Amino acid sequence: MIPEEYFLGLAAVLFVIGAFGVLTRKNAIVVLMSIEIMLNAANINFVTFAAYRGDITGQVFAMFSIAIAAAEVAVGLAIFLNLQKQRDTVELPDLTLLRW
Amino acid sequence: MTFVEYTWLIPIFPIIGLLLVALLGKKTPEGGGYFAVGGIAASMVLSLLVAYEFLTGSRDLQTASLTWLNLGGSFQLDMGYYVDNLTAVMLIIVSILCTLILIYSIGYMHEEGERKRRYYVEISLFVVGMLGLVISSNYLMMFIFWEIMGLCSYLLIGFWYYKPSAARAAKKAFLVTRIGDIMFMVGIISIFASFGSLNFRDVFAAHPTDTTLLAFGMFMLFGGSIGKSAQFPLHDWLPDAMEGPTTVSALIHAATMVKAGVFLVARSFPLMVQTPDVMLFVAIIGGFTAIFAATMALNNPNIKRVLAYSTISQLGYMFLALGAGGYVLSQGLVAEGSAGFTAGMSHLMNHAFFKALLFLSAGAVIHAVHTEDMRLMGGLSKKMKITSFVMLIGALSIAGIPPLSGFWSKDEVLATVYNAGAVNWAFYLLYVMGVVTAFLTAFYMFRLWFMTFSGHESEAAHHAHEAPKVMSVPLMILAVFAFASGLIVLFGFGGVVFFQEADVRTAADVFTAVFSEWTTYVSIAAALLGITLAYLVYKKKSVSLDWATKGACKKVYDLLLFRYYFPQAYDAFGTQVIYGLARLTDWFDRKIVDGAVNGISFVAVRLGQVLRKIQTGMVQTYAMVIVGALAVILLLMYVFGGW
After folding, report:
1. Region B539-565: what's the mean pLDDT?
2. CA–CA separation, A94 and B228 (whole Å)
3. End-to-end alpha-carbon separation of chain A, Å?
C-alpha cells in the first residue's frame, strides 16, 4: 500500500505551486487556476485522511469543496468576462481605479 | 395704593411710545412725535408721583427685584427698582427735562420730514435708558441701561449720517466712551468678586475684606464715569457730539446722559468713601477737567461747541464736589462730606436745568439763523426777545450770579473744596482752579451772549424770527427752573439729598451761612469780573483782545482752538499704538498660532503621503504578507518549539 506521506507530500507540493501562482502571476485567470490547484491540494488531504483513518467525513468534505469550487469558478469567470468587456484587460496590476 | 411699587413702569411708558412711533409714525403728524411725547409725559407723571410719595413719606429705602438669571449658587442676577432720596430727585430732574425737551423737539425737528420717525424712536429709547438707569437696583442692570444710552447717543449724534463729520463724530463718541464702558465692566466684575453680589442693597451693607480689590473696582467704576461724563482724558468726544441735532445735544449731551457718570459715582458713594485715594483721584480729575475744558471754550466760534466745553467743565465741578466730599468723609468729617455730596448733586440738578435752557436757546438761534458760527450772528436780541432773555437767565445762572440757581450750587461746591483743604492741601489748589474756572465760565458765557444777541444786526439776523410757541414755551418753563431751582438749596435740598448726615438747617441759617463765608464773595467777584471783561471786549469793545491772536500768544490761541491737539492725539494713539498693537497681534496670529497649526497639519499630510504607499491596494501584496508572516511564524515555532 502506498504510504500516507506520499499523498500528503503531493498535496503539499501542489499547495505550494498554487500559492506561488497566486502570489506572482498577473493574469486574473491564471490566479484563479492557481487557487483551484490549492483547493485540490486540500481535497487530496481530505480524502487521504478519510481513507487512512476510515472516516467518511473527509470524503464528504471533499465533495462539498469541489461543488463550491465549481460555483466559485463560475462567478469568478463571469466577473473576468465583464472585466474584459469593460476595461479590455484581465491583468491585475492594471486594475487601479480605487488605488492612490 | 402706593406708587413706589409701580416704579418699574416708569421706563415702560416710553417703550410703548417708541412702539407706537415705530408702527404708526408714518401715518401720524410730526412722524409720531406726539406718541413719544405722550409716553414720556406718562412716565413723568408717574415719576413725579413716585418722587412725591417717597419724599413726603418716611423716605425709607424702597427696593424690590426679580431674579433674572440664576446660574447656580450665589451667582444670581436680578432686575428691580431701588428708590431712595437720590433716585427720587433724579427721577424728578430727568423726567421733567425729557418731557420739556421732547415737546421742544416737535418744533425743532418740524422740517426734518421722513427722518422724524427715526428721531422719535431713538430719543424714546434713550429716555428708556436714562430712566431705567436711575431706578436700577443693581450694577448689571445699570450697565445695561448705560449701554442703551451709549447706543442712542451714537445713533443720534449720527442722525444726519450723510454728513461725513456727523458720521465721524458718532463713531468717535462710541469708541471713546467704549474705553470707559470696558472699565465700568471690569469694575462690576471686581465688585462681584469682592461682595458676591451686584445688588445695591447687599453691596452697600457689606464690609469688604479686600480693600485693594475694592479700590481697584472703584477706580474702574470711575473710569466708566470718565468716559460717559466726558472727563479728562476721555473728554474729546463731547465737542464732536455737537454734530447731532441741538435737542439731542441738550438732552443727551448736557442734561441727562453725561450726568450718568456723576450719578454712578453718587450711587456708589457708600463704597467710594471707603477708598480715599480714589475719591482724591475723582476730585483731581474733576477739578482739572473743569479748568481745562473752560479754557477751550474761551475762543471757540461755534455756539454749540462753547456750550459743550462748558458742559464738560461743569461736570468737572460735580466730580470735584463728590470727590472732595467723599475724601473728607473717609477722613471722618461726616457733616462736611455730606455737604459735598449734596453740593455735587444740587449742581447736577441746577446744571441740568440751565444747560438744557442754554442749549435749547442756542437751538432756537440756530433754527432762526441757520448757522452755528457766532461770528455770523449778532444783533439778534431785537428779533428774538424771548430767546435772548431766557438765554440771559441761563448765562447768569451758569456764571453764578445770586440769586440764580448756578450760584447756590457752585458756591456749595467751592465751599466744600475749600473746607477739604484743611484735610489735604491739594484741595486748596483745586479750590483756586475752581475759582479761576468760575471766572472763565462767566467770561465765555457772556462772550457767547454778547456775540449772539448784541451789537449790529448781522446778515443772518435780518431773516431771523422768534421761535414758534412749541419751542418758546418749554424755554420759558426751563427758564423758571434755571432761575429758581437753586433756591431749593435754601429750602431743604440738603435734608433730602445727603449722605449719612442730613442737613437740617433752616433757610435763614443756610442763607446766613452762605453769605458769612468769604469764599462766597470770591466766587461772586470772579463771576462779575468775567462778565465785566466780556462786556468790555464784546459789547463796548473798549478793551481789545487782538494781542491774543498775534505773536507768541497766537500759539496759545491756536492751542485752545485746536483743543490742545487732543483729536490728533487720539488719532495718533489709534493709528500708532492701537494699530501697531493690532499689527503685532495679527503677526503673532498669522505666524505663531496659524504657523503652529499649519505646521502640524503639514507634517501629518506629508507623513500620510509617505505611509499610504504601504497600502498598495493590490490583493497579491497582502497575500504575500500573509503567507510570508505565516512562514515566519511556522519557522519560529519550529526553531523554538511549540508545535
Report:
1. 77
2. 77
3. 56
Between B64 and B185, the higher pLDDT residue: B185
* Nearest-by-CA chain A residue for B622: A23
Instruction: Work out the angle between the directed axes of helices B139-157 and B116-135 (0-180°, nearest 10).
Output: 160
Main-chain dihedrals φ then ψ at residue B69, nearest 5 degrees? -135, 130
Q: Which residue of A has its CA nearest to B616?
A: A99
Are B228 and B177 spatial neighbours (Cβ–Cβ below 8 Å)? yes
| Contact call for residues B105 and B33 (beta carbons, < 8 A) | yes
HEC secondary structure over B387-451 = HHHHHHHHHHHHHCCCCCHHHHHHHHHHHHHHHHCCCCCHHHHHHHHHHHHHHHHHHHHHHHHHH
Give the gap in angstroms from C-alpha A30 to the nearest C-alpha of chain B. Answer: 13
**Which H or E element spans position B77?**
strand B76-83
Greater confidence (B468 vs B169) lies with B169
Res B283: pLDDT: 92
Contact B137, B79 (CB under 8 A): yes
Distance from the Cα of A100 to chain B's closest Cα (Å) equals 8
Residue appearing with cell numbers 466780556: B534
What is the band of B585 on the pLDDT scale with cuts at 50, 70, 90? Answer: very high
Which one-letter amino acid corresponds to residue B524?
Answer: I
pLDDT digits (tens, 9 = 90+) for A41-50: 999 999 999 9
> Which of B612, B619, B624 lies at the smallest CB-CB distance from A100?
B612
What are the grid coordinates assigned to B50, written together?
413716585
Note the pLDDT of residue B68.
84
Q: Which residues contact B247 (CB under 8 A, 6 or more apart)?
A: B101, B102, B104, B105, B108, B109, B123, B360, B363
**Interhelix angle B259-267/B211-228, nearest 10 degrees:** 160
B65-112 pLDDT, tens digit per residue, is 888 888 777 777 888 889 888 898 899 999 999 999 998 888 888 888
Inter-chain Cβ pairs, chain A and chain B, closer than 8 A: 22
Is pTM beyond 0.80? Reply is no
Whether the complex's predicted ipTM is more than 0.85 is answered with: no
A92 and B618 Cβ atoms separated by less than 8 Å:
yes
| Helices B426-453/B518-538 angle, 10° precision | 30
Hey, which residues does B365 pair with through a beta bridge?
none
